Amino acid sequence: MSRIIAVNSNCYHGFSIEEAIAGIRAAGFRYIELTATKGWTEHVFPDQSFERLLAVKDMLEEAGLIPFSMSGHCNLMDTERIGDFIKNIRLAAFFGCEYIVSSIGEAHLKDNVVADNETVARHVADLVPYLEKYNLKLVLETHGKEHGKGSVLAEIVRLVGSDRVKVNYDTANVVFYGDVDPCEDLKDCIDDVAYVHLKDKGGEKNVWDFPAVGKGWIDFPKFFAQLKEAGNESPFSIEIEFTAAGPKDVDEVNKAVMDSAQYLIAQGFAL
Question: CATH number, domain at 137?
């Protein structure tokens, strides 16, 4: 099976981009999702110097890693944060990315009333001109109690009505936040999915436990079969977030990335 298979640099949360690049490349991957999430993982970020950003770009090229996407999460319902997200769009374009990933954020208006899907879609649609200008696709991640199901995000994407905006299906977030079986939920949104965060789930549904791909209980063979049957060739980006305690050191992250690679190869994928 041939498709883009990447590793999200957020797997190396708490570690440097240099360590992320080295570990991802050592595991045999050729693609990386760069993380630019304010206050969380700022492996690259708009406030970094041009010299620093060029250095990261050079490191990626030397490692043979293609930065095809960027995790640029902002609360897209917060008008005061939209400027930050537009900077992330421009940063993604600087690195030559094709995709930018974001969750919607909790969709509350100023009076704390939850916005309906039509209102959310209007907020997202306002970003389409920037996506067109910088030739990017925005993939909205299944995340949070309000948007933790693919079926909900698919409705928003359809309301936006642009090929520039699709669903990023996170296989473990739909369990943790949406309390659904990913293989069942996928049926209602598969035509709108254009990107997949491959994330496994360990422990109870509501426990923060996201091990290496293949080490949890998500039924990935069934999930892969559904995508294949639908002809859905969405890129995969591996995300490993461990337990609430986090990894003990970078070697544990490297092993989890390597274990994920070996699992996918055993499933018939080429890195």
Answer: 3.20.20.150
